[in-house]
Amino acid sequence: MTDYGTIERRLRERLSLTRRPIAIAFRDTPPPGVKQFSGSEPSGCSFWRLAMDGRTFFTVPADHYNCPVGAHTHNIPLPSERAGELPQVLQIMTGLGYLKMEEVAGIARLPKTPGAVVYAPLADSPVDPDVVLFIGPPGRLMLLQEAALRAGVAATVPLLGRPTCMALPAALAGGAVASTGCIGNRVYTGTGEDELYVAVAGRDVARVADEADTIAKANTALADYHRGRRATLATE
């Protein structure tokens, strides 16, 4: 398996990332030797917070039932007794003017229901991740996005917004994507107002790491160049 410990270290050092990237893998069956999640969380993105805190575990579809929107993006059908929860949540969102019903069809989804979802800090991932999720200040993630562009793996889609969890299937399908996040995600994960997301397909993360050094050095040099121009050309 790929040395994800080295990849995480390289990315964090070169890009000065403020949080650990997390690896997420969608599997048909639970991987051997990985602990199953025990407990309850209000959303699928709540599991991101646990992985950022250093935990490695897997969930099963039932663990995602508490978030109808997250279950939708993960292609996890709700049981019959809870099937009405998604329309109820969408009614609340549309009633508040937060969302238009016609936007729902454009929300990215996984192509099939996972039997298990594995979460871990990237360096500790017990399996090859499908998506690697980065969280941090815009200036740091700018470098990550530029490394993805240089590697040729950036998706040709606009900046994503609500729901944050659709960044996972979007990256899996089309390449590295950036997301502003959403209010539910920020409440459930503790993500700050000064932080954004970038999701990179697991198949591409090594290539992004390979380009990160060039991008970091280029930005340092360009910062000096632009400071010089500002000092010379700015008159007010």
Description of the molecule:
The chain has helices spanning 4-15, 46-52, 68-73, 85-95, 138-151, 167-174, 183-189, 205-233; strands at 22-27, 57-59, 116-121, 131-136, 177-179, 196-201. The relative contact order is 0.18. Helix content is 40%, strand content 13%. The chain has one domain. The radius of gyration is 19 Å and the shape is globular. The protein has a 6-stranded antiparallel β-sheet, sandwiched between helices. Helix 1 (4-15) runs parallel beside helix 8 and helix 5 crosses helix 8 (205-233). It is built from 8 helices and 6 strands, in the order αβαβααββααβαβα. The model has no long low-confidence stretch (mean pLDDT 94). By secondary structure, the protein is α+β, with helices and mostly antiparallel strands.
Jot down its keywords:
236 residues; alpha+beta
Sketch the major β-sheet.
6 strands, antiparallel
- How do the helices and strands follow one another from N- to C-terminus? HEHEHHEEHHEHEH
Mean pLDDT score, rounded?
94
According to DSSP, the number of beta strands is 6
Number of DSSP helical runs? 8
In the predicted model, the low-confidence regions spanning at least 5 consecutive residues are: none
Helix content: 25-40%
Radius of gyration: 19 Å
Beta-strand content: 5-15%
User: How many domains?
Assistant: 1
